[in-house]
């Protein structure tokens, strides 16, 4: 009796072990789901894919004009602030040197004294000429009086020119905008002492561009005409092209300017996320509607040469073309993909859920 019970228990234990083993195998390895291949078939081919590289970029202008002080003195007025728009030739401030007023007064007094001496010399010349004509003075005395009158007139002209020069220097105290644009910086407050060459304000000049700082290793692959992608703060993506590459290297970086239509010029100097086309490579590009997303995993339907089609998980990345994605892993060139049926109910990479 005991032997029979032991045999029965052994049989039950073996049966339970086999059942558990079968359940474990089904959880660990699952075969790809078989699906009906009813949609259009696409043969995966390798294609040239742009090699996009993330780079540092900022919104800038082609040039920046600087308003500098041309004479030493006191900044008595500055009529602009950051963000104001100015026109070329517009007066935006004034620098005054108080010493120029004293110099102008001194040269004015010299001019008046020279004018008085010139009048006296002219009167002496008239008297000498009268006496010469009446035989009283010799011709040498007349020539001496003529030379004295000419010298006095020259002194008058010199004093007046010196006075004009002082006035011209004082006129250089006016701060004139060298170009039309927006004021980026005006950090010097009115009342400050300034020196010649000191920057009073900085003004944008020229069209708005996207200024890129490229790694030195990427400089040989980027040239005028290379594509650029920009993502703004609101998520909008814009495309443009490289306009110029500067022929110099600074701190291991090469500077380049890109023309991007629709770039917001409200904040000059703002950093944005940008990518530049650094050449091409081989990749697998397929239409986005051939890829279905289920529970956060992307799938494509692969049709083998023999047998039924199966859903295969793949890893994807955005492609440069609209409506297409790049498959990084999961399929190979030559595989045949089947477009999912419209009734699958899963969202495609194109964005709309199929029902």
TrEMBL record:
Keyword Signal: yes
Annotated TM spans: none
GO molecular function per UniProt: efflux transmembrane transporter activity
Keyword entries, A-Z: Signal
Signal peptide as annotated in the record: 1-21
InterPro entries: RND_pump_MFP
One cellular-component annotation, GO: efflux pump complex
Family: Belongs to the membrane fusion protein (MFP) (TC 8.A.1) family.
NCBIfam families cross-referenced by the UniProt entry: RND_mfp
PANTHER family named among the record's database cross-references: HLYD FAMILY SECRETION PROTEIN, MULTIDRUG RESISTANCE PROTEIN MDTA
Name of this protein: Efflux RND transporter periplasmic adaptor subunit
Species whose genome carries this gene: Tsuneonella suprasediminis
